[in-house]
């Protein structure tokens, strides 16, 4: 997941990540209060904090706004509309959706995608032009809600097209990798695959929302298969003391920050509302147990601090670390 502000790093939000590891874990994005199983209503995680003002943010030469933020901002605006904060918020969500429609690739090998045209200087090396399953899924979720509210077919067409990169193997330029007897949708298309947990879940919800909004059997089948794979393999992100942010083979495990550990819990709670699996119930119980333990929290904090010392949040700066010099020699 990515941010809504470019803050500076010690306990703040940064352009390439949510509240950082050293931030207050009181900053949360809980399960959405307007979630209705089998109904295209509120989003599954409450993103209202993403839309703190009615004007959609715009990229400038000094600040890059990834496409995923426009989707998150629109979902936050839509949630504010559902909360009774006025029709202006629905208009804001429509504006964000139209921005995405206008910038979506309509043809060619990346048809359906939103291509971020700046390299990501954060943890993962994805190249100068890259796409993200999280962007595709969250954009599809926003577009479907705006379609239901407006009746405009262009939003439904864009949402359906947004799923195309999710069905293409990463090796062929898409965002799908084989995983655990099924597939995983990659927030960051790295080699080897990074399997970022929160991004993969957000991407699956795009399938679910298109399935609901368009009665699309193919999207529903993909969602169900993705959920089954996630349920059978959720233990891979469980270290026994804390959750992992990803499964990328770094020198040391990339544990989730307190923000992301709680987000994992809330995502699984939301998933349990719409696609119940006993594995999700058990995982939530374990992850809550970890979060309640002061000893585990401190161990996770120390481990994450070591990870960031070896692999700085800004990957461009990290090239000068001994860890990255060793990687290049290898």
How is this structure best summarized?
This protein has a single domain (48-329), classed as Glycosyltransferase (Alpha/alpha barrel), CATH 1.50.10. The protein is 48% helix and 2% strand.
CATH topology: Glycosyltransferase
* Overall morphology: globular
The spatial strand order of the largest sheet comes to 1-2
How many separate domains make up the residues? Answer: 1
Low-confidence stretches: 2-18, 21-25, 317-330
Mean pLDDT: 88
Note the main sheet. 2 strands, antiparallel
Alpha carbon gyration radius: 19 Å
CATH C-level class is: Mainly Alpha
What is the number of E strands? Answer: 2
Helix content: 40-55%
Q: What secondary-structure arrangement, pairings included, does this model have?
A:
Layout: H1 67-82, H2 87-103, H3 133-150, H4 153-162, E1 176-179, E2 182-185, H5 197-214, H6 217-233, H7 258-274, H8 278-292, H9 294-310, H10 315-318, H11 322-329
Antiparallel strand pairs: 1-2
Helix pairs in contact: 1-2, 1-3, 2-3, 3-4, 3-5, 5-6, 5-7, 7-8
How would you sum up this structure, described in words?
- By secondary structure, this protein is mainly α.
- Helices cover 48% and strands 2% of the residues.
- A two-stranded antiparallel ribbon has the order 1-2.
- β1 (176-179) and β2 form a beta hairpin.
- The radius of gyration is 19 Å and the shape is globular.
- 45% of the residues are buried.
- Residues 2-18, 21-25 and 317-330 have low confidence and may be disordered.
Key traits:
330 residues, mainly alpha, Glycosyltransferase, two-stranded antiparallel ribbon, 2 strands, 2% strand, globular, disordered N terminus
